[in-house]
Amino acid sequence: MNTNINPNRKQAQNSTRGRGGAQLGPVGQQRGPAGVPARNTSGQPARPQQASLGGSADEPLRSHEQALEKMRREVGIRYERPIRPGFGTLGNPVTLLANFFALKITNSLVYTYNIKVEPTRKARDVQRRLLSLLEQTNNQTWQSVKFFVAYDGKERLVSAKELPQPMKIRVRFFEEEQMPGPNSPEYTVSFELLRMWEIDELMKFLCCNIDNYDISPLISAINIVLQQHASSTAIRVGNSRYFGFPGYKAMELSPGPTGLEAFRGFFLSARPVFGELMVNVGVSMTPFYKPIRRLDVAYNEDCSNGLQRFAQNVKVTTMYLGYKKRYTLFRITSSSAAETTFIKNGRRISVAQHFREVYKISLEHPELPLADLGTERRSVFVPLELCMIESQPFRGLLDDRETTKMLNHSCPFPKDNFDEIVNQGLPSLALTEPKASLLDKFGISVSKTMTNTSARELPPPKRLLYGTGPLTVQPAKGSWNLANVKFHTGASVAKWAVLVVFDGRNPTSDEDVSRVWRGFKEGCQKSGMTFANQPPTIGRTSQLPQFRDKDRLEGTKEIKRVIQDLRMGNPTFVLVLLPFRDTKLYPGIKRICDVELGIHSITMVLSKVLKPKGSQQYHANVALKLNQKLGGINHVLDAESTHWLTKKSTMLVGMDVTHPGPASKAGTPSIAAVVATIDNTFAQCPASLRCQESKKEMIDDLKEMMLERLRAYMKKSGSIPQRVIVYRDGVSEGQFDTVLEHGSEKDKILDAFKAIHKETKGLAEYRPQLSIIICGKRHHARFGPNSRFQSPNGNTRPGTVIDRRVTAVFDFDFYLQAHDGIKGHVRPTHYTVIYDESGLSADDVQQGTHTASYLYARATKAVSLVPLAYYADLACERARCYLDGFLSSEQPPAPGSSGGKDKGKAVARDAAEEREAAKQRVYDAAIQAWGNGVHANLKETMFYI
């Protein structure tokens, strides 16, 4: 039986940030008026020689190591964020290509300005429109400077020359396709000098000559310049991704006018590395709404959805005023244009009448609902036939079919990916423009050749230890199988139960049910689990309602009733047989079992398991999860592979936070997870879960969560660990210092150490060594091998680690690809050690993290993210089931007013206060629904896996 199982993995966050603190410049630097640094009078700054691309990649690396050593030896600076202790040496050396392009700057100065608009307008759309109108003005001062400036569309302008001061330009505001008139409002746009940046100071930082210099504002300014062309010619998504370039056709993800389409585009960002800057260019893909000329047509063709999917912050454009006006869609009403009324000049009229009288528009479909383009406090009703949707990114959740199409289309292999970056990406982003371009004005040039970088291929663990049969398995190419082996420690099952869910479509026969549970039991026993001879208790639901139970609330109640009956027999777990995959029933079942009843559950989809082929694979996959849930151990690493962890007793910790998405109710809490090992097998990892303030990344209740994990370790191991190594997922580079600052996550972990010491009543102070490692998956670094060092599909091989050339100047970071890239261009994980009391070497962390990636219990493959962080992510995803009604609500929040009915009501609070009050109500309701969280019966198990 080949049971080679591959997991799926969501991606975590990462972004660009320089090193340093709140200082505005190097120590001792003279400053001009208003805190602006004085000019550099020494002329053109000296720069280190740039490393030639395509030549030796080792020369700048030796210089980097020497520079770091010199700083450690001579300057003697100590950091809370550790300087790189050295470079890794283990593994076979290889040379790779990276999607980084060398960038040179010949100008000596760069100026950044704050854009100020008077009277003040907070709306970003107004600010962007004003800057667009500024481009068209005939103002002579602006015309003299416009060709050497770039701006971000918000409040920052970057200039290659110093602008005349004061510089104030009057701009008359009018909407797109509107004719300006004498009554058009007028604004004054002014530019206030923020900072004059000296490029030689940046180069000193990049060459390790200074460290107390925050380069992140300058990197942001350079990014504004690099992205100016793309910002003005393409659709920007997020901070650095651009779509809609000529020649790129959309790919349909779902049919119909309310379906989605996907566009390919490019990511672009400057990255500081040793001795120079690099430009990271990557291929990206994102879903978009299809353009819709009239929303009423879309409604008529897709009224089953009621267009509610569009009520997720989509931008709606109208033209009935004679010019383009953009709004954010708040909701689709339940009443029609003919039925919705309000008071106007003392009489009640309908919305249809209003448009006929005021705009001379007789609606074709007054019977259709309205688009509410207002807010909670004040509705703005517009007929659907007068609304259109322009191309814009979709920020909701894709369904299964859309996700599959997206993945299939967005997974080119390395060679195709790199060819697209060089041949289409660089020209589309105008990074290879000739002279007289904006980049030329700033003295910026970008290489057309990708960077070479040295890398190494780390060896896998020598052996994976199992139970009877061959006691060891040797992985190859990041993978192995369970043929003829049994779990290291198999769990025992005395009693169990089976629940058959009947939805009224295709009733499952007793014979099929028997075949499924017998095959499942046999698969678990072959893997090493022990089952009592008696058969399971079998329960069936009555027919679940379908069409009148959209949210499956009645169906979930029926399932709970049957599980409660089954629970009377004290089963170890319940096997739930679903007729098909159901995104509403599944979270309901997990909440019932995990939170309300405290019983382990395993779900199986009958349409999959009843297939003649693949049932053994399916059963083996489920057995991996069940054994760990029930306290078993699937496999462990050999002693040599865990030696870096067993020098001292060590507890590995994984931490993550999941946030509400665009489809969630405003105010829905974020959910934090902390998982940790409990002994030196590093296999069993129970979890602590908490709700906290919505969209807050730092974990609030971390002290108590760490205490729970330390108590579990002490209960199992009989002592508390001498070292704690934390793998923190989901933190961007801009938040590294936040993890370490006073009162944040690091201090809460230290507080937990003090608290557990009081509980143990030990005589000596308990203070284990603490290390914190950030795991980042949301980055655009990609690597490609030459023909000698690649997998059959053209990817780099498992164990590839990169800690040179394209990594940070000072930070202790590296890219690690522990897994085998099966489809598309493999994405490594970016690890950064931001705190270290253990004195970990580069080889310790790199090889140790690599071998630990083979410990993931749900697969027979090395995984892309270290398992502790992976488990924290799984725990977060499981906890989302407990608040599914809040996190996946398709209904928008109710507005504060409705037509004319509420016209006479006094408004006690302004709109902002009402929004906050509504969010607080949602938060309070979610906390009430959460209750005490996971049931006490399951808290010290891997229930989430």
Characteristic terms for this protein:
945 residues; alpha+beta; paz domain; Rossmann fold; eleven-stranded mixed beta sheet; eight-stranded antiparallel beta sheet
Shape: globular
Mean pLDDT: 86
Structural class: alpha+beta
The number of helical runs is: 24
Uncertain residue ranges:
6-57, 890-909
Strand order of the largest sheet: 35-34-33-36-37-41-40-39-23-1-38
Largest sheet: 11 strands, mixed
Radius of gyration: 30 Å
Task: Classify the helix fraction into a percent range.
Answer: 25-40%
Provide the β-strand percentage band.
15-25%
Distance between the termini: 23 Å
What is the strand tally? 41
Would you give an account of this structure?
- This protein has 945 residues and is α+β, with helices and mostly antiparallel strands.
- Among the domains are: 105-290 and 398-449, no CATH class; 295-390, paz domain; 490-629, Rossmann fold (3-Layer(aba) Sandwich).
- The chain is built from 24 helices and 41 strands.
- Strand 24 (464-465) and strand 25 (472-473) form a beta hairpin.
- Residues 6-57 and 890-909 have low confidence and may be disordered.
